[in-house]
Amino acid sequence: MDSDFIRPYIRSLTPYSTARDEFAGAASVFLDANENPYPTTVNRYPDPHQRLLKARIAELKEIAAERIFLGNGSDEAIDLLVRVMDCTVGGITITSPTYGMYKVAAVSNGVSIVDAPLREDFSLDMEAISRASKGGSRLLFLCSPNNPTGMQYELEDIRRVLAAFEGVVVVDEAYVEFADTPSALELLPECSRMVVLHTFSKAWGMAGIRLGMAFADSEIISAMNKLKLPYNVSELTQRYAIERLRKPERMEREVSELRDRRALLVRELESLEGVMRVFPSGGNFVLVKVSDARTVFRALQSRRIVVRDRSMERGCEGCLRITIGTSEENGALIDALREVL
Asked: Is the pTM of the predicted complex or chain greater than 0.85?
């Protein structure tokens, strides 16, 4: 990868060295980290490099451990990428409507935002992406399947983005397990200026432990590790994830069930009066255009049913985003919508 994409001071930064960086292996007496010696199962600091967990993920994803970053949700990886890449001149590029944290990470780090908005059908505008690149933007965030639209992009679409954008392309695949398209991880060997984000929050059902993954060229991962907090992934999170990863078949079964429920919910929504359109989705949610989104949103809330109002986002006027729930939850939603609409 062209190291010029990374901020110069980060390339020369010596990261903070923890007590656990200075020793690796088995020991019976730990007097190096000022910990409380009384055992509580969590009285010791966690592995700052998450070695055991990364080894399991490396096996699962078929990628070298040195190309994996683990953080406090994907949001930590997003924030670190904005800080790591030299975005101070050309800003970051987004393709709105998309996940809102890209903007938050940019603004909170004093970085400008260049929008290459999606076309009316939510497809990518390659000319707008190319203009952003020529304007000096060094980092582009592409969400696939996209949140909130549900649009999933083919690998060839991502190749076209990589050809049109000369900086680092971040493909956020938080919902990839629910999609019909293969993961962009397949493209990593072809391109060193690409980052792929995955999460344990959606398909794996571990949103509460806050664990996200970034896969990239080892130089990018090294730069992210320099900036991360020393113990950014807790001992409890690492243990829980390792245990959950022992049973991938459970995740696969749940994803299959949710995909079936998604198809059923789409059919039921399309049969309702007042539903103007249900957009195709590769995620565990659907974007639905209704006659009066704000009124419907509030009416559902009054019935203790919570969905997301996306009607104020560019290109999503009149739309609600609805997560695929259990059969009972989906049924309650449809019953309520029949009353409301």
From this structure: yes
